[in-house]
Structures are given as structure tokens and as C-alpha cells.
Amino acid sequence: MITYHQDSNFINNVNSNIFHAFFKRNGGVSQNEFRSLNCGYIKGENKVNVIKNRILVCKTFSMPLSNLKLVNQVHSNKIVEITKDSSLSTADGMITEDKDLILGILTADCAPIIFSGKVFYGILHVGWKGLLNNIIPNLVRILDKKKEPVSKVICSVGPHLIKKSFEVKEDFIKLLEVKKPQLSDSIFSCNSKLFFDFSKSLETELLINGFKNFNILKIDTFLNNNQFYSYRFSQQQQKSCGRQISIIGKYK
User: Fold this and answer.
1) Residue 166 neighbours by CB under 8 Å, 6+ apart
2) What is the rounded distance in angstroms from the CA atom of residue 109 to the CA atom of residue 183?
3) What's the pTM value of the predicted model, to 2 decimals?
4) Beta strand extents in 187-243 (DSSP E only)
5) Which residues contact 220 (CB under 8 A, 6 or more apart)?
6) Which of 13, 114, 131, 165: disulfide with 222, CB 3.0–4.6 Å?
């Protein structure tokens, strides 16, 4: 059985024709370390299984696979506008007004962020690199151009790496101080180790950039690795890591 999490706070604040899901890793056909709803083309995975899993995801909302749009994610700050004729882009975010589409992002510790305005809706893949390289301010610039007031845009942040699961080193802290000094208070120490409060940093960045209606699901992918793919957990186990999918779309 496919399992996923929906943010009720998000769905209660947008038009009822919006559908979204932060899918878990269960209910698919992939085997072994990719068990079971892996939606990413990872080395060692059977591509046929990935296609079957994506079909299952779309069927959850009675949509065909042809409606699903993804991007080639590279931890950038690039966000592209998507139409039904769009080919695969290299980016880490999508925005559209097309009601025929499902926008999907793949994660395994990074944060999926869904958003919806009056007309446009979209999705972001936000890891620490994207965060530090201004993917959220870039989204604001795009929303402004689309005449979507940021203060009225509804956002939800899905499962991601949380607090004590996100250990960092001094080089990361130095980079943070240069790129995003306003996020420096997201660093804390425990038992002589340094950690990054990813959830807190996302909240701060959203607030600084004018978002008022958002919710952050503090579900830790690392500690819940039986339900979600976690790149850090898989690295510790010296195994390959699959990718869960998060999606947003509109019913006609």
C-alpha cells in the first residue's frame, strides 16, 4: 500500500482543487536497498521499477504518468516555469498555472517545499546548497513577476533532515557565515559536535522573504529511515539510497 503524508494546514488554506502529497518510501515495486517506492533513477536501480513506481504515484490521484513533470535536480537556485510541452530542465524548482500537470520533486534528506498562490503553484527541492544560494529569494522574484503577492502564497515544507541528524563541520559554518549570516543562530553544539537546525533556517528564510502562511513538517528522514529515504543513513550503512517523491497539482 502506498503511504504519504498530507499537510492539513496547507490544504485548509488553499483552493479545494489543489492536491499534494509527501510520499513515503513504501508501497512500490523496488527491491533491496531501494525498497520500495523509489522514484529516482539511481545507479543500480531498475529503471522499469522507477517507471512503475511513478505510475503508482500518479494513480493515487487518478492522473496519468504523462501529466507528471520533474526536473534534473542539481542543488541549484534555478526555478523554471513549466507547461505541458516543457522538456526536462536542469533546475531545482518548478512553477506553473497549468491545471493538467503534476509537479514532482525527489528528495532523501533535502526539503521539498510546495506552494500555491491565486493562479500559480509549484514545488522546490531545497538542500543546504540551494538554501545558501538563494533559491527562496529567487522564488520571491518569480512570484513578484507573476503578480502573486508573497504574503498570500501558502507554503508547506515536507519531511527533511532535522536538528541532531544534521551534523556539520567548521567549513560549513564558515560558509554559512559568509552566505547567510542571518541563519547563524541555526547552529548549535551538543556533546562536542556541531549541528545545523535545518527546520529553523527554513523558517527564518521564509519569514525574511515575506512569507506569512507556511507550515514546516518536522518529520526527520534520518530517524524515520524505515518510512523515508535518507541519504545520510544510507551512507552510514554503505548502501545506495532511493528517492521519495513529493507532488503538487490541481484538479480541473
Assistant:
1) 195, 196, 197, 198
2) 19
3) 0.97
4) 187-190, 193-196, 213-216
5) 159, 160, 161, 162, 163, 165
6) 165
